[in-house]
TrEMBL record:
SUPFAM superfamilies reported for this sequence: FAD-linked oxidoreductase
Lineage of source species: Bacteria, Bacillati, Bacillota, Bacilli, Bacillales
Cofactor dependency: FAD
Keyword rRNA-binding: no
Keywords: FAD, Flavoprotein, Nucleotide-binding, Oxidoreductase, Proline metabolism
EC number: 1.5.5.2
Protein name: proline dehydrogenase
Amino acid sequence: MEMITRNFFLFLAQNKFIKNKATKWGPRLGAKQVIAGESIKEAMETAAKLNEDGLVCTVDHLGEFVFNREEAIESADYCIRTLEAIAETGVNCNLSLKLTQLGLDVDVNLCRDNMVRILETAKKFGNFVRIDMEDYSHLQPTLDLLDDLRKQYDNVGTAIQAYLFRAEKDVRNLEGTNIRLIKGAYKESPSVAHQRDQDIDKNYLNIIKVHLLNGSYAAIATHDHNVINEIKAFVKENNIPRDQFEFQMLYGFRSELQKEIADEGYKMRVYIPFGEDWYGYFMRRLAERPQNVSFALRGFFSK
């Protein structure tokens, strides 16, 4: 039943017709509980409030299905304005983005040019940019572009998804890179990805430990307190300093645990999505865990 629910919401995440119809009622399905508004201003206000609680942040301007140069350039401009707003407001916050927003499916050179503009802006302000990982078809192009960019910029990293068979190999190849380690949120073929939760969980812990033991910076993105406790014990046993890793969670999920981790002296970063194009992100969150569906329904019936 859990797999059926997951597949259903992943199907909805890619359905453009339903997406267009959903915009008017999405906020009533709990979207506003996990999306920090639609504007840069709202995102900065949310980040400032989280900073007050000892949490650091990263913001992501949501957007998918960019298939022309004008939209890609506009998305890059928006990322640059977001970095400028971070600097102006003084919030402790990075930027996360997706390469498809910047034209990866249109022209790789266009995408690279957009990333260079963004990274130059981030460098000017002493900030860091995270390239979020997308579905399997974009994995190798993303890693190829990252490799190219890292020849010139050290303020850029990416994410690796534990459900992929190749995850450990990619983590080892990215030694020295700031990586966000996640389980994965897309529907992938059994030919490239683990399908059973227990296999994904096992590989997730494995790639975290591999990256930490390599002396590389790890952004450990999980809401699972069992994983968090195991990593706390692991870093202590292996004398891994706290400035070599951070925990990450999504905005709107397990807020009390986020604060608890920060109060213990660990860096706790909150991933803050914002913008009008919330639909695909929200559907993937519902697909990840059945508990998220009840979370959304509570938002609907509380109105």
